[in-house]
Description:
Layout: E1 12-23, E2 26-37, E3 41-45, H1 52-59, E4 67-72, E5 75-76, H2 81-87, E6 88-91, H3 103-113, H4 118-131, H5 147-159, E7 165-169, H6 177-192, E8 196-200, H7 204-210, E9 213-218, E10 221-226, H8 228-234, E11 239-243, H9 247-256, E12 261-263, E13 268-272, H10 277-289, E14 296-300, H11 304-311, H12 317-320, E15 333-334
Amino acid sequence: MTKTAPHPPHPHAITAKHLHKAYGAKTILDGIDLTVPTGTVFSLLGPNGAGKTTAVKILSTLITADAGDLHVGGHNLATDAQAVRAAIGVTGQFSAVDGLITGEENMLLMADLHHLPRSEGRRTAAELLERFDLTEAAKKPASTYSGGMKRRLDIAMTLVGSPRIIFLDEPTTGLDPRSRHTMWRIIRELVTTGVTVFLTTQYLEEADQLADRIAVLHDGRIAAEGSAEELKRLIPGGHVRLRFTDPDAYRAAASRLREAVRDDEALTLQLPSDGSQRELRAVLDRLDSAGVEADELTVHTPDLDDVFFALTADTTTDTATDTPRRSTQPTKETVR
Ligand SMILES: Nc1ncnc2c1ncn2[C@@H]1O[C@H](COP(=O)(O)OP(=O)(O)OP(=O)(O)O)[C@@H](O)[C@H]1O
């Protein structure tokens, strides 16, 4: 299945400099820069309508950018779109699955499109159907497949041509947890063979699980970029929360832990903390020395949700209003 590359792979599977795209007066991508090292998973995150699909469509040659210096697989998108197309696979919200024919026939059609010899096409189709747990359903029309099965078939079809760079636009949307985990495993396996994955997702956990680097798209710009861990460090807010039921104990603790943020009504104290065992022990020691015991101790470490909501706060008010979120809004943070 693996084709021998005629040249050593380019160190960067994808580079975009000053990528710009507008629809009429509306700027969707406002001169963004992206670099995706070969053999890594890169995730583009953003609220609905941020322009993730637009970026995927441009980088996969489906639509053209208004401006930008764009290279995919070492090929210039503006002058060598054909070579880019030969290097990539795309699956996304624009599925290639034909519902009128069976899963197997869809796969064989792809094999024909890639000019695979008949026997190799059959073997590749069978292997991929097996790998995506579609062997049993292979002879049924794809229209009878569940959403998850169609999505798996779509990705299997993409892999027929052994692309070195794969664009996955929300690959697990609509999948149940088991299928989602299967897909994660498949994506991880792909990367071990040197494939580069450009992933958009609405699931922050997915980016956290899979991506080597994550870029948060907001207002047409990259608001922040880094590994999941690096992005989490951008957002202060790790804390320990102590809750008391006895007002005397609460007051005694508050006078001992003077740096804590007090909530005199809820009888809670909040202290900045990285959640480490050492810091927790220090807090507990200080409570002990004051002779008080909290009724509840909870640790909050910032997760990717916090980062995402903090960075995209002003356009996600519908989701952010229920839960108080920090309003830190770096204009551009790159962590290396
Ligand atoms: N052909 C088009 N003509 C005009 N506007 C468009 C066109 N395609 C997309 N847009 C607009 O561009 C913006 C970005 O759309 P895009 O689909 O790239 O967002 P997205 O981040 O992928 O969102 P989602 O997660 O909802 O798919 C949206 O406001 C959308 O309405």
